Amino acid sequence: MASALTLALALALAAQGSAVAQAATAGFKDPLDHPARAVDAASRRPMMAVAPAGARLVAVGSRGLVVVSDDRGKTWQQSKVPVQSDLLAVQFPTPRIGFAVGHDGVVLRSDDAGNSWVKQLDGRSAAESFRNHYQSHPTPADPAIKRALQQIDQNFKAGAALPYLDVWFDSAQIGWAVGSFGMLIATTDGGKTWAPWLDRIDNDQLNLNSVRGVGGEVLIVGEQGKVYKLDREARRFVAIDTGYAGSFFGLAGSGRTLLAFGLRGVAFRSEDQGKHWEQVPMPSEATIAGGVFDPATARYVLVNGAGELLVGDADARRFEAVKPKQPLRLTGVMALPDKTVVTTGFGGIALATLSAP
Predict the structure, then answer these.
(1) Pick from 14, 67, 153, 213: CA 20 to 30 A from residue 38's CA?
(2) pTM of the entire predicted model
(3) Rounded CA gap, 286 and 4, in Å?
(4) Cα–Cα distance, 326 to 320 (Å, whole number)
């Protein structure tokens, strides 16, 4: 995930750019070269996303912070992370194997349910690797390959600053990460190697904000109302027209509906796997940062920049806003089986109980 993030990412990117410019100064410490520091009250630090790892919960946030909970979010313990880069998204395709992504082009992997992490990729190592990928392509004169190589040169000319905003794995081996300025990478070996897919998506450097698996399909959402659906046979993401021109920051879905959401509280729904879309009336204009479909209650739960929970019916047609006592910008949400949801935000991690439908 990734949203209420618009402002957060803009500020974070500015900070990253400033950091790169200061690299020559004596006090600079590259976040890629230093492990995350142990902090007090880790679960109350700015957090960006939370995901299940079997029965465990794993959340990620600023300065390489990762925390885990084995009691449904009541208490949290900090994990060992090899970088201090801000982490924006996390996903576990199995109870023990998980991946996290974030600033500086970082991709991390855990093999022990989030207790410890290793770095698989960063923006420094990726630049040369991705250039070599396209320079050694069997058809280097192909216009799509030339455009992809130009995009790599442009995206990495400022160094390792660009973030990955989301990650999704179909299995422990096959996954994708998406990011700013159209970055899209894929792996088929659990992240041992990552390859750029800039030539495998109908996109022209628009930000790709989220990638999700829903109902057996893999979909990406991004700027200009774009939704992209994976054609598994062609190994390519194909653009779908939604009729919207703004930015989508996330996607959630059940077996029968898809919901794309984002800037200014806008949400669109589809009942035919993305072929046709219609806008959903929403009770708030605050940017929607994250969302999930909760099968236990057959409801959608979204979170926004005003700190609200937006709770919708199973068809994603009607939503009601649950106002917070203390409005803090929320960034992510996941549902537990007992009508409880776990939220992440600039004020840390919190639990909320949903009322009966």
Answers:
(1) 14
(2) 0.92
(3) 8
(4) 18
